[in-house]
Amino acid sequence: MLRIVPITLKQANAFVDKHHRHNDPLPGYRFAVGVADLAGTLRGVAIVGYPAARALNDGVRAEVRRVCTDGARNACSMLYGAARRAARAMGHRPVITYTLPSEGGASLRAAGFRIECEAGRPSKDWHNRPGRSAPAIEDDLVGGKWRWTDE
To answer: Which fold has domain 2-149?
Structure first.
């Protein structure tokens, strides 16, 4: 049995640092939520902020920037749902997030999101300048993501 709990950015980032497969902690946020078991152990976190893409950062839209769990059943769906409801209650519309193509999206669909478009650039576009590098994410380095929206 899981329940939604309030958390700080410091708590959320510590969880992401320990458990996330390919993303680092974030420097800032609008808010974060967690899920804990009945013993009070944190089992997952969601960090919500403004969109990272400048073209989408209109001051109203919110982006679920990180979701990370330790594998607890239904934790992702609970986190996406709680993050969406909280962002909407604060007046953010729409709420967006991104996934890799290899991630199925069942938790997002359960929380009321749908695929909006393919996003990101192929890695060849990212590495077109000297000194630029990015960590590997599956078969691509930068691009190849799906953008999800709740509208």
So the answer is: Aminopeptidase (3.40.630)
